[in-house]
Amino acid sequence: MRHGPRSFSVCLAVNHAVKVSWPATSLPTGSTRHARGTPSAVSAIREDAAPDADGGTDRDADRNADRAALKGDCGNCFGLCCVALPFARSADFARDKDAGKPCGNLQRDFSCGIHARLRDKGYQGCTVYDCFGAGQKVSQVTFGGRDWRAAPETSRTMFEVFPAMRHLHELLWYLTEALTLKDARPVHADLRRLLAETERLTEGDAASLAALDVGEHRQRVNVLLLRTSELVRAKGGRKAKNHRGADLMGRRLRRADLRCANLRGAYLIAADLSGADLRDADMIGADLRDADLSGADLTGAFFLTQPQLNAARGDAATRLPAGLARPGHWSV
Ligand code: SF4
């Protein structure tokens, strides 16, 4: 399978000069794209409990519920990923599309005209993508429910703000998850501060979001995520492998012992990870497109996102970390 310069994630980095420390793997996809759904809380992240004796809060135990709110709610979005983001004809997309131009399949009500047939029609990339809840935040909060068709004068800024918001929401996902990790307790107070700061940034007006240096904020978050990773993976001892940023494309890693491994930004495209032990591995930014996770154990693997899983292959025997769903296209 040919993997083109793909998707939304790469385009985001290029178009918005967002320099990141791990390759973004958030492919454009729309696992939930255009299944009109129940409006979810635009943001459920909050700080409403006092720290307890060990620096944690009652809220930390319930962070997975917060993460559940960090996913696309297409019924409350103005089809932003289908307009704002560009894509290139490749294995993931049947056609080229420029940023700011509505996809030809986007309907008047912002639903997708080929939602049930995306893979058959060559839009596999759209089945992988998730905006982490950025679409509904921009649509309903930043722009107060006025869509770009009804108020075309807002469209340019709206399409500029969406990628920035998506980056911020992706950071909210990681920070929220980090607070569920008991081994990261020494940095929980710092994580809570950055989580609150990131949440505040998402609540800014359109002008401040458009002017935001997301890359700078992301770097600050990344320092803390790195420390979190070290604390969690320390239980793997000296045996834990370090494959940070490694080129493992197509590699045969069947039944490999990757417990507590550092797979940050690793290129695992089409790798055979069937039966691999990936428990407590750091998966941030690992490119899992077409990787075979059949029978792999990802229990406790962290900083893994739904778009990464959606891009991979797997089966009913794949064990997943909390908070992630088994993709519908995986074999049973
Ligand atoms: S095919 Fe077009 S309208 Fe449908 S999900 Fe993909 S980008 Fe959106």
Structural class: mainly alpha
This entry's quaternary arrangement is single chain
Percent range of helical residues: 25-40%
List of distinct ligands in this structure: iron/sulfur cluster
SSE run: HHHHHHHH
Q: So how many helices?
A: 8
Average pLDDT reading: 85
Number of E-type strands: 0
List low-confidence stretches.
Answer: 1-56
Number of domains: 2
| Amino-to-carboxy terminus distance | 22 Å
Shape: globular
- From the alpha carbons, calculate the radius of gyration and give it in angstroms: 19 Å
The percentage of residues in β strands lies in under 5%
Describe the sheet with the most strands. none
Could you walk me through the main structural features you see in this protein, from its secondary elements to its overall organization?
The protein is mainly α. The protein has two domains: 61-235, no CATH class; 240-331, E3 ubiquitin-protein ligase SopA (Pectate Lyase C-like). Helix content is 28%, strand content 0%. The protein has helices spanning 8-15, 63-68, 134-142, 155-178, 188-202, 206-211, 214-233, 306-311. Helix 4 (155-178) runs parallel beside helix 7. The longest helix has 24 residues, at 155-178. The structure holds iron/sulfur cluster. Iron/sulfur cluster binds at residues 30, 33, 82, 103, 105-106, 112, 114, 123, 126. Iron/sulfur cluster binds next to loops.
